[in-house]
């Protein structure tokens, strides 16, 4: 999807001319902007030091995961009902834009799950089946949850075809409350009734096209929040064992991954007891569990939250996101091999906030959270949601009269670029703000404040042996000049060739973004091009200028000295000297 033309000499000169024009325009705009805001604002230089490996995943792909939920159209929070046509059952899975946008994210994981996954019944053709397949119905108490829900066989065929056409790997949440719902007493939760799950798996088994996109299963969603159903870690572990045995019985030749326990929030003791009960507590024991999942909405509620915007734009809020959870987990498991997975987060809970979580501002917490969790040992990050809710990456709310659904919201491009550029090896990064020489007599306090309002993440793409950077500038007034420490003074050519993707918006709550100053156009089919700014000249090579309240991804070609030194890139150069695009 991303392309960089490789034309003749004429094109090359045109490109150089265009880049000069672009640079001049940006420079002029930047200066004008700073003048307008406050003449006392210093230009700030932030030095980036790329450090040791923080965490290395098994593969460059697969970190970016998106969720699709079950919520029906009459799911409302705070009087806002953002799930119309946004659930796995109601959205138009055959829509070419939806399909193409999902396909554009390399090896994306599609998690199908959520609260209602535990009430859904799988349609069973066997007329003797005791499980009626009923549509969702609001529960009497407590609202706004629902009972029932039905996955028909024809709907599953659509879902399987959707996954096949988009190349998405499915992780499917199996209902863990089957047979456990009608009990009236909190004390006695009966064992899981696996019969409906078994009927579903036997249906899948009939045709490999029905299950070939499924890589794994979850079992139970945030069971710690189900009213009056305290399911102990031991009961939860028994459920996983039962599901594991069922899968082996129905699919003896295939080995599906299991993910859990989908804890809402984190509980050290729950995780410890759950892993102990599964026999997964140390690295010598074989585990049926591939990944440990937890859910977190670190921004608070979607509504009745007057500080939501400020929370997103204050990077300190997420600096330690997932840190103690990762530390505690690896303490309990003695460095067991389980992956650690952010199984569900949409930032703000209860469906997010319209005009915030579906606008440009949303990308600031989302990108930071992806960067921080990648450093804190996480192997996958599932964004709630691909469609549905106010935090959807792809819009299901018709705008105006033209019913233009399934166009990307700004954070879609954040997911897309992160998946393309930020490879398996997450590095520690330190940043240091300093004043430029000619501003030496300006006020220092502004400089310190600004350097604390940037965040930088650095990953090596292991296959392509190149360094990728994500630079976030939260400051609404100051352009930041980023330089890489150890590469800046002696050898400017170290940092070329490279491609830069500067993502800006006309307003923090805009619903469209610009890439390198150009509004990103998505056509009828969902095709788009993010045109990189390719830096090939030494004289423009040192500084990466990031505008106020914007972010940039930078990919250093594997031929560059910085990629070779940090990521073991090859020593050959391309024939035309251009940066290899992602
Ligand atoms: C949901 O989708 C159906 C069929 O595509 C369409 O007729 C209906 O208008 C949509 N509803 C909303 C609220 O967008
Ligand atoms: C889609 O299905 C076809 C036919 O079964 C198969 O050959 C192909 O590998 C599938 N593609 C994906 C991405 O699963
Ligand atoms: C949960 O249990 C409490 C006390 O036993 C009871 O008052 C309440 O109605 C129960 N809630 C539900 C949803 O069953
Ligand atoms: C690890 O698990 C194995 C097999 O269950 C057990 O024999 C061993 O004692 C355990 N080691 C530790 C340190 O818990
Ligand atoms: C790790 O476990 C030890 C002993 O159980 C405990 O004292 C320590 O606080 C734990 N560390 C973390 C980060 O949980
Ligand atoms: C620098 O900024 C601080 C805080 O805004 C202010 O108190 C101080 O007077 C300023 N100093 C100069 C020289 O402008
Ligand atoms: C810029 O941010 C500061 C605090 O970070 C805030 O007080 C100010 O209102 C913001 N200005 C604009 C134009 O958003
Ligand atoms: C400077 O860059 C060139 C070409 O990119 C490289 O061959 C050389 O080793 C670099 N020199 C130093 C001192 O890093």
TrEMBL record:
Pfam families: Glyco_hydro_79n. Keywords: Signal. Coiled coil: none annotated. InterPro entries: GH, Glyco_hydro_79. SUPFAM superfamilies: (Trans)glycosidases (SSF51445). It comes from the Eukaryota. GO terms for cellular component: membrane. Residues 1-26 form the signal peptide. PANTHER family: HEPARANASE-LIKE PROTEIN 3, HEPARANASE-RELATED. Belongs to the glycosyl hydrolase 79 family. This is Heparanase-like protein. It comes from Seminavis robusta.
């Amino acid at each position: 999807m991303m392309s960089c033309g490789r034309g003749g000499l004429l094109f090359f000169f045109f490109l150089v001319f265009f880049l000069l024009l672009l640079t001049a325009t940006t420079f002029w705009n930047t200066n004008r902007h700073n003048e307008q805001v406050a003449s006392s604002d210093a230009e700030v230089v932030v030095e980036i030091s790329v450090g040791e490996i923080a965490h290395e995943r098994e593969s460059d792909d697969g970190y970016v995961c998106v969720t699709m939920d079950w919520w029906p159209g009459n799911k409302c929070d705070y009087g806002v009902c953002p799930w119309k046509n946004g659930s796995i059952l109601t959205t138009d899975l055959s829509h070419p834009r939806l399909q193409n946008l999902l396909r554009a994210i390399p090896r994306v994981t599609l998690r199908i799950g959520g609260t209602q996954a535990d009430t859904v019944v799988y349609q069973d053709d066997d007329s003797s089946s005791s499980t009626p397949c009923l549509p969702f119905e609001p529960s009497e108490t407590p609202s706004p949850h629902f009972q029932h829900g039905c996955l028909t066989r024809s709907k599953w065929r659509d879902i399987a075809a959707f996954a096949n056409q988009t190349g998405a790997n499915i992780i499917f949440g199996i209902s863990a409350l089957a047979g456990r719902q009608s009990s009236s007493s909190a004390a006695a939760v009966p064992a899981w009734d696996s019969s409906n799950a078994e009927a579903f798996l036997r249906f899948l088994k009939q045709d490999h096209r029905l299950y070939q996109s499924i890589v794994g299963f979850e079992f139970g969603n945030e069971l710690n929040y189900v009213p009056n159903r305290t399911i102990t870690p031991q009961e939860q572990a028994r459920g996983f064992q039962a599901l594991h045995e069922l899968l082996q019985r129905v699919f003896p030749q295939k080995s599906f991954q299991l993910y859990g326990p989908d804890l809402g929030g984190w509980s050290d003791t729950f995780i410890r007891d759950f892993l102990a009960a599964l026999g997964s507590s140390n690295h010598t024991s074989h585990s049926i569990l591939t990944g440990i999942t937890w859910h977190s909405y670190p921004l608070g509620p979607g509504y009745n939250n007057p500080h939501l915007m400020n929370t997103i734009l204050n990077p300190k809020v997420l600096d330690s996101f997932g840190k103690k959870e990762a530390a505690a987990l690896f303490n309990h498991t003695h460095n067991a091999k389980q992956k650690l997975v952010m199984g569900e987060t949409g930032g703000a809970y209860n469906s997010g906030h319209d005009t915030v979580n579906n606008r440009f501002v949303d990308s600031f917490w989302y990108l930071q959270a992806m960067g921080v969790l990648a450093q804190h040992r996480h192997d996958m990050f599932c964004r709630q949601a691909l469609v549905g809710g106010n935090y959807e990456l792809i819009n299901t709310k018709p705008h105006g009269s033209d019913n233009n659904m399934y166009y990307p919201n700004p954070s879609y491009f954040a997911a897309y670029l992160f998946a393309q550029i930020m490879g398996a090896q997450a590095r520690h990064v330190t940043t240091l703000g300093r004043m430029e020489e000619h501003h030496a007599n300006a006020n220092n306090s502004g400089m310190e404040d600004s350097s604390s309002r940037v965040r930088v993440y650095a990953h090596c793409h292991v296959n392509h042996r190149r360094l990728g950077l994500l630079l976030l500038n939260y400051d609404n007034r100051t352009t930041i000049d980023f330089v890489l420490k150890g590469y800046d003074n002696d050898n400017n050519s170290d940092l070329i060739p490279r491609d830069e993707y500067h993502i800006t918006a006309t307003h923090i709550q805009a619903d469209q973004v610009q890439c390198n100053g150009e509004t990103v156009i998505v056509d009828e089919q969902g095709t788009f091009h993010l045109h990189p700014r390719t830096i090939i000249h030494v004289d423009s090579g040192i500084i990466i200028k990031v505008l106020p309240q914007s972010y940039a991804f930078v990919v250093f070609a594997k031929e560059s000295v910085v990629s070779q030194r940090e990521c073991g890139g090859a020593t050959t150069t391309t024939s035309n000297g251009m940066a290899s695009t992602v």
